[in-house]
Amino acid sequence: MERNFVLAINPGSTSTKVSIFEREQEIKTFKIDHRKEDLEKYKKIADQYEYRLRLIKDWLEAENISTDALIAIVGRGGLLRSMPGGTYSVTDAMIEDLKVGIQGEHASNLGGMLAKGLADLENIPSYIVDPVAVDEFHDIARISGLKEIPRKSLVHALNIKAVSHRRAKELNRNFEDLNLVVAHLGGGISIAAVEKGKIIDVNNAKEMGPFSPDRAGTLPVGDLVKLCYSGKYTLNEMKTMLQGEGGLFSYLDTMDGREVEERIKNGDNYARLIYDAMAYQIGKEIGSYATVLYGHIDNIILTGGLSYSNYLVDRIKEMIDFISEVIVYPGEDEMEALNKGAQRVINGEERAKIYEDEVSISG
Ligand SMILES: Nc1ncnc2c1ncn2[C@@H]1O[C@H](COP(=O)(O)OP(=O)(O)O)[C@@H](O)[C@H]1O
Ligand SMILES: CCCC(=O)OP(=O)(O)O
């Protein structure tokens, strides 16, 4: 059988998205939603491997897509060591780091594992593209205020790069000439200063910045330390409280923006206060990242699932539209961006980077 198709795999905290592409054309796409109780069974993210693999195989079978027809498999890259952007071959050293969660636990760690697991069965290449560990910081952005704790670049790099390219195309400008503040508003929130195509600073979507649907974001640090040593919570309970059950979930017991809006429509003033506070923190953070670019900004872009919300977008816009024109791209272009990254290598326009050559393994 002629191998023409690329399979793209994007594991998220609540879903696994899969798409089949023939060159630039998306042929089929599917979002497998995972119930909280189905994922809670697994202690570590890597333990979900067999479960998600089975679901992907079942989908391929149901769609009558034989793995004989795949030319390559590309996955969303995870919390690897700090690395430059681009398309990477999935290597054994990368798999080791994904398995242990070298920079932490996140569903995207499964992207490279699933891509390589399936690709090896067919003897075809596997790739990841612009993983969440992309690090293009200026040195000044690494300084936190405590020598032992440097600031980290953990960011929705794939979508941020994809929407920046999209805006450059619309403006008929080079991506490398644009200065943007891009806010990815999803399960986690990244607010990034993109200077001439590079993400030179970002809040760290796992641990800092505005609170998000499931994350606490930046907290008053003294009170956080007290809570850690209060004896009330284990390390794992603290981690879950900050990421997974923080943010909107901590106040409202839901991480679904649509449900919060429904409550607001029904007159729930507490839900309105919390949702408005999330918008307020996002607006404030965007203002802060505008200063990183000294105010020289072509556009501010709002993207991610929460950007479907007119209510939230309006609250944010009224705080920031004095800075620059605000462009809204709801949802994400991640599947297309994964495919484009793989196609550039398949077509010979770019060579796949090798993880071990790009990162400091001893660090
Ligand atoms: N129409 C909508 N209105 C409000 N919130 C929405 C809407 N659509 C999606 N969301 C919210 O967006 C968030 C998920 O965003 P998404 O970009 O899919 O997440 P991730 O970054 O984890 O992939 C969830 O909180 C979801 O409830
Ligand atoms: C760690 C950055 C990536 C991230 O937060 O992704 P989700 O919003 O999909 O959880």
Automatic annotation (TrEMBL):
Top-level taxon of the source organism: Bacteria
EC number(s) per entry: 2.7.2.7
InterPro entries linked: Aliphatic_acid_kin_short-chain, Aliphatic_acid_kinase_CS, ATPase_NBD, Butyrate_kin
Keyword set, alphabetical order: ATP-binding, Cytoplasm, Kinase, Nucleotide-binding, Transferase
Catalytic activity: butanoate + ATP = butanoyl phosphate + ADP
CDD domains: ASKHA_NBD_BK
Secreted recorded as keyword: no
Annotated compartments: Cytoplasm
GO molecular function: butyrate kinase activity
Chief place where the protein resides: cytoplasm
Homology family: Belongs to the acetokinase family.
Cross-referenced PANTHER family: ACETATE KINASE, BUTYRATE KINASE 2-RELATED
Identification of the protein by name: Probable butyrate kinase
